[in-house]
Design a protein that fits this description.
Layout: E1 4-8, H1 32-43, E2 47-52, H2 57-68, E3 73-78, H3 100-106, E4 115-119, E5 122-123, H4 126-138, E6 145-152, E7 163-170, E8 176-188, E9 191-196, E10 199-203, E11 208-216, H5 219-233, H6 245-255, E12 259-264, E13 270-271, H7 278-290
Parallel strand pairs: 1-2, 1-4, 2-3, 6-12
Antiparallel strand pairs: 4-11, 5-13, 6-11, 7-8, 7-11, 8-9, 9-10
């Protein structure tokens, strides 16, 4: 059975100022997501599931989904603010989504095979998808045995503002020990400033970070549902609190219930977090086309 790719595409990209998932960046008008789906197809994924909001459905389908209709099986799931476990309701004044675990759970009814999870607005490169697909095929009959394709921190920052990353530590067996969600990350003269929960620190940028390039088996969905309910029961910030994939993964590692193999991507990450990032992404993609890694136009 071929693995499925889950694309988290519900965000509007408020800092960027628009629906950046459909903003052209390739030499022939390609969007970042075009490259992810193209790479996923040639890596061996058999289906793609887009997790979006209903209010962007029409624009997303017309610009994104229809492009792939005859190339790979395409399905949609909808992240709804009101989609909560029985007994819970949306706090008054809450507008912010519930986080990446909530988005992933929106696709739960569609996922019956090992699946990868990525962001819609990040370029991961063909090698990342090949690593992910190969690892998921090996896990077809396994449970609670996951994978993370990690990137080097220095290659994932923006010169135009702060970013958030899951900073990882890896044990001697190559498995994930901790993944800590850090914020306010930006370059400084002496390295990279990292907004760690235990206090800001300066690091050299060689650290492995998660860019939400995960590989899971379907049993994670049950674990995530339990974790999300526990998160809601202890919600300390009703208006802005979110439950992230690294949270549920870390909880499983701490409990000794799961293991996550960490693979290092050979690729250079590209992403548009701020409008000023776009020219660098366009330049990087043009170079990949010039080298013949991608055809022009991408979809022929």
């Amino acid at each position: 059975m071929k693995p499925t790719l889950v694309v988290l595409a519900a965000g509007m990209g408020s800092r960027y100022g628009g629906l950046k998932q459909i903003d052209p960046v390739g030499p022939d008008g390609e969007v970042i997501l075009d490259y992810s789906v193209y790479d996923a197809i040639r890596a061996g994924f058999g289906k793609v599931v887009f997790v979006i909001r209903r209010d962007i459905e029409e624009a997303f389908r017309s610009v994104i989904g229809d492009t792939y209709a005859n190339k790979i099986q395409v399905e949609y799931a909808f992240q709804e603010l009101t989609d909560l476990p029985q007994g819970f309701s949306v706090p008054e004044g809450r507008a912010k989504p519930w986080g990446t675990v909530h988005a992933m759970l929106a696709a739960g009814d569609i996922l019956n095979e090992p699946f990868g999870v990525i962001n819609a607005d990040d370029f991961y490169g063909p090698g990342s998808f090949q690593l992910l697909a190969d690892a998921l095929v090996k896990r077809e009959s396994n449970r609670s045995d996951y994978v993370l394709v990690g990137f080097q921190l220095a290659n994932t920052v923006s010169e135009h503002g702060t970013v958030s990353r899951g900073v990882c530590s890896v044990d001697d067996s190559g498995n994930l020990s901790t993944v800590v969600e850090c914020h306010d990350i930006h370059p400084v003269e002496t390295g990279i400033s990292l907004g760690h929960p235990e206090g800001t620190r300066i690091v050299d940028g060689t650290q492995t970070v998660s860019m939400n390039t995960w590989g899971f088996t379907p049993d994670l969905l049950d674990r995530s549902a339990v974790g999300f309910k526990a998160f809601l029961e202890t919600l300390s910030n009703p208006l802005k609190g979110e439950y992230y994939i690294p949270n549920v993964v870390q909880e499983g590692i701490d409990a000794g219930d799961i293991q996550v193999e960490v693979l290092s991507s050979p690729e250079s990450w590209l992403g548009v977090t701020y409008p000023e990032d776009k020219p660098l992404v366009c330049e990087g993609l043009q170079k990949l086309h010039d080298k013949g890694i991608y055809p022009s136009p991408l979809w022929g």
